[in-house]
C-alpha cells in the first residue's frame, strides 16, 4: 500500500469527512499567504498535552506547552537554531483517541499549516477499551490513523510527518493483561508511518531498556504518563530521528 492508497483501507464516510474539511482549510491557508518552512505542530493525547494551558493559542508560549516532551523540543530547537522563525504549536489533548483527533483535525492541525507534524497517539485507543467502554479495535485505529495522514497530505503536500510509537511500562495501571493486544497498536502505528513515508520514532524498546536498569517508575509512575525523565527521553529520541 502506498501513501496514495489509503482510501481503499477506509470507509468512504470516514475518508471524505476528514479529507473534505482538510482540503478546504488547506486551500484557505494558502490563499492567506501564511509563511512556511518553520511551523511545527505536536498532536496527541495527555503525554503531548503535558498539562498545557489550552486557552493560549499563539505559538512558542511556554504555558501553552505544559511540562511535556513537546515543551522540551520547542525550547531546545529554538535555542539551537535562533536564525529560523520557528512557530511551535502544542495541540495535544488529554484523553484523546484517534476518533477525537479526527473530530478536531481540520481546525487543530490543518489550519495551522504545519511543515512538520508530530503525532503520538494510541495508548488511549487501547486503555479506554478496558475502562471507558470504548469499542475501537486495532483495525479501527490503523484505518483512522491512515485517514488523518492521507487527508493531511492531500491538503498539505509538502508536510513532513513524525509518528511516535505508543508505549507503556509494566507498572501502575499497566499489567500483563495489556499484552499482546497493546503491542498490536504499536505495530499498527509503525505500519501507518511506513505507508505515509513518515519518520518513525521507536520508544517502547528504549523505555524498556531504561526501566530494566532503574525500574519502570522512574520513567512512568503509572505505566502510561512519563515522569520528567521520561519526557526528556522522548525528546531525545525525537531529535535523534528527526535530526533537529
Describe the protein in words.
The chain is an alpha/beta fold. Helix content is 48%, strand content 9%. Helix 7 (181-196) links the parallel strand 4 and strand 5. The longest helix is centred in the first third of the chain and has 21 residues, at 12-32. It is globular and about 45 Å long.
Strand order of the largest sheet: 2-1-3-4-5
Radius of gyration, Cα only, in angstroms? Answer: 17 Å
* CATH architecture name: 3-Layer(aba) Sandwich
Low-confidence residue ranges: 1-10, 14-36
Total of domains: 1
Largest sheet properties: 5 strands, parallel
Mean pLDDT over the full residue set? 88
Q: Approximately what portion of the residues adopt beta-strand conformation?
A: 5-15%
Structural class: alpha/beta
Top-tier CATH class: Alpha Beta
Determine the N-to-C terminus distance.
Answer: 29 Å
In the CATH hierarchy, the third-tier topology is known as: Rossmann fold
Shape: globular
Helix content: 40-55%
Number of helices: 9
Q: In CATH, what is the homologous superfamily?
A: SGNH hydrolase
Total DSSP E strands: 5
Order of helices and strands: HEHHEHEHHEHEHH
Provide tags for this entry.
single chain, about 240 residues, alpha/beta, Rossmann fold, five-stranded parallel β-sheet, 9 helices, 5 strands, globular, disordered N terminus
Amino acid at each position: 500500500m502506498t501513501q496514495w492508497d489509503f482510501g481503499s483501507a477506509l470507509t468512504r464516510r470516514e475518508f471524505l469527512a476528514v479529507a473534505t474539511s482538510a482540503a478546504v482549510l488547506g486551500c484557505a491557508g494558502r490563499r492567506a499567504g501564511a509563511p512556511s518552512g518553520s511551523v511545527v505542530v505536536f498532536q496527541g493525547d495527555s503525554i503531548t498535552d503535558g498539562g498545557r494551558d489550552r486557552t493560549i493559542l499563539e505559538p512558542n508560549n511556554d504555558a501553552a506547552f505544559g511540562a511535556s516532551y513537546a515543551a522540551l523540543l520547542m525550547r531546545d530547537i529554538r535555542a539551537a537554531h535562533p536564525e529560523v522563525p520557528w512557530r511551535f504549536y502544542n495541540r495535544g489533548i488529554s484523553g484523546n483517541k484517534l476518533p477525537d483527533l479526527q473530530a478536531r483535525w481540520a481546525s487543530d492541525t490543518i489550519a495551522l499549516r504545519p511543515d512538520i507534524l508530530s503525532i503520538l497517539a494510541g495508548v488511549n485507543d487501547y486503555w479506554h477499551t478496558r475502562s471507558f467502554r470504548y469499542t475501537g479495535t486495532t483495525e479501527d485505529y490503523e484505518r483512522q490513523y491512515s485517514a488523518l495522514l492521507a487527508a493531511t497530505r492531500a491538503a498539505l503536500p509538502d508536510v513532513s510527518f513524525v509518528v511516535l510509537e505508543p508505549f507503556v511500562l509494566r507498572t501502575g495501571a499497566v499489567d500483563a493483561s495489556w499484552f499482546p493486544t497493546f503491542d498490536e497498536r504499536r505495530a499498527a502505528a509503525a505500519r501507518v508511518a511506513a505507508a505515509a513515508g513518515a519518520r518513525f520514532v521507536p520508544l517502547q524498546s528504549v523505555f524498556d531498556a531504561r526501566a530494566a536498569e532503574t525500574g519502570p517508575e522512574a520513567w512512568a509512575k503509572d505505566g502510561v504518563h512519563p515522569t520528567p525523565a521520561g519526557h526528556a527521553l522522548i525528546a531525545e529520541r525525537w531529535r535523534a530521528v528527526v535530526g533537529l
